[in-house]
Amino acid sequence: xxxxxxxVFKAAIFVAAVVVASILIVKIPPLLWKxxxxxxxxxxxxxxxxxxxxxxxxxxxSLKNYRGKIVLVNFWATWCPPCRHEIPRLExxxxxxxxxGFVIVGLSVNNQGKKYVLHFVKTFKGGxxxxxxxxxxxxxxxxxxxxxxxxxxxxxxxxxxxxxHFTGEIPRGYLSYEFGKLNKEG
Length: 186
Hints:
Layout: H1 2-32, E1 44-45, E2 50-52, E3 60-62, E4 70-76, H2 81-97, E5 102-108, H3 114-123, E6 133-135, H4 138-143, E7 152-156, E8 161-167, H5 174-185
């Protein structure tokens, strides 16, 4: 009986260790994220990137070109169910607010290649994705605290500072709230 109890206890300890290690792997990188320049408190300058646009051939997606706008940088993949679920809401919000200075930049972490992602962008729900899409490279992923879990989104204010970071889908209504608040700040 003691041997059986000992095995169950060891198994429980192992499972607990795996759960704790998994949480640390996912949650610690953003806490250690120091690639930006601190402004005040928790604000961090958004890391710059310059990547080729997949859905706008010949165009470059560069964060510096969006200074003065509110930007949502969204790391995603075609095979990610939460990413696919979130895209129509992001697209709707983007279309409604791009004239007011809102931009979404979708950065795919797919390893299938550009052609696969471009095909997805053109065919997903009839080709609804109109915001710029690029392929995230290692340097960009690392600059944003390493992307271990998707979707991950970063809201960047008009001055170029990261003001919010989400792992998982952005909660319904939050973009409206955050956009309204940041738009008033000027």
